[in-house]
Amino acid sequence: MDTKRLLIVVALASMVALAGCAGLGDGDDGAPGDVETTGGIEDDVAADDELDSGVGDESNLEASFTAAGADEGERAALAAERQLIRTGELRVTVEEFADADEEAREIVESYDGFVSEGARETRERNEREYVSGELVLRVPSDEFDAAMADLEALGEVERSATESEDVGEQLADLEARLENREAERDRLRTLYEEANTTEDVLAVQSELADVQSEVERLDTQLDSLEERVALATIHVELSEEPPETEPEAWYETGVSSAFLESVSGVGTALRAAVVGAAYAAPYLLTVGVPLALVGIVIARRVDLRSVS
Q1: Radius of gyration of the chain, Cα coordinates, nearest whole angstrom
Q2: Which of 68, 170, 218, 306 is most buried when burial is the number of CB atoms within 10 A of its CB?
């Protein structure tokens, strides 16, 4: 039992005690009847405590289903039923974006779906424009596979992926928690109507507001999850083929760009010469120097012969 409910029980128990003392002091002036009325509210509090300790236990789904009257067959059927959230992703290259976009919208409408989001972008390359865009489509889950196949036929498929998530347990948990909170809310409403003092009214009202807020939150979550199960989501990217890049003629290059490229070329040539010299140095030392010495000796002998 939480703190607020404990305060309610204590307040009502105090009221019962005060009423009993008043009945003993007044004798036969009808006080016993007042005690009996107050005792009825105390019984309701006890019943509410029993609800909180039994049906209100959110961690025990089996007890929740039992309190709701679900039999063994219903629980087995719920466990066997798969609640899938299905999503798909497509990237397709098309000849004309406008035609493909219109056809994609017609496909989703033919399956009783709708376009959730849409965007397009025009780009330019080599003074030629090409268009690309995205669509977020929602279709009934039982039509998901057929819709994916039709969308893949729009052009050349670059990427196709699908994903499924089973949320059956989440749905069952939300339904049980929502049912428990609704039962608790109904019990608090009964206590609110039977409260006799301002303090009791305010205490029950505060607890009732908290429970009502929880009921609305769970109800919103449940509706959102059920909607995602009922309608699959398909993300589609459509793009025209970008124009090929044409090589630029040398005379179309700007003057500054040409000069910088030339300087860069000179630097590259010098660096290549230095690297080449470094590679050739060992060979020059081991082969070139001895050959040079031999040449000098031969040249001197020739000179001496010519003199003599």
Answers
A1: 44
A2: 218
Model pLDDT for residues 18-53, shown as the tens digit of each residue = 444 434 344 344 333 333 333 444 444 444 444 444
pTM for this model (two decimals): 0.51
For the record, the structure tokens of 293 come out as: 């010495």
**Mapped to the 3 state alphabet, what secondary structure does the chain carry?**
CCHHHHHHHHHHHHHHHHHHHHHHHHCCCCHHHHHHHHHHHHHHHHHHHHHHHCCCCCCCHHHHHHHCCCCHHHHHHHHHCCCEEEEEEEEEEECCHHHHHHHHHHHHHHCCCEEEEEEEEEEEECCEEEEEEEEEEEEEHHHHHHHHHHHHCCCEEEEEEEEEEECHHHHHHHHHHHHHHHHHHHHHHHHHHHCCCHHHHHHHHHHHHHHHHHHHHHHHHHHHHHHHHHEEEEEEEEEECCCCCCCCCHHHCCHHHHHHHHHHHHHHHHHHHHHHHHHHHHHHHHHHHHHHHHHHHHHHHHHHHHHC
User: pLDDT per residue over 204-243, tens digit each?
Assistant: 888 989 999 999 999 999 999 999 999 999 999 999 988 7
Asked if 176 contacts 64 with a C-beta cutoff of 8 angstroms, the reply is yes
Whether the per-residue pLDDT at 73 is higher than 90: the answer is no
Q: Which are the contacts of 132, defined by CB distance < 8 A and separation ≥ 6?
A: 97, 120, 121, 123, 237, 238, 239, 240
The residues spanned by each domain of the chain are 83-246, 258-307
**Inter-residue contact 210 to 184 (CB < 8 Å):** no
Contact 75, 220 (CB under 8 A): no
In the sheet where 231-240 sits, what is the strand order? 114-125, 128-140, 231-240, 84-94, 156-166
Mean confidence (pLDDT) of the chain: 75
Contact between residue 190 and residue 220 where contact means Cβ atoms under 8 Å apart: no
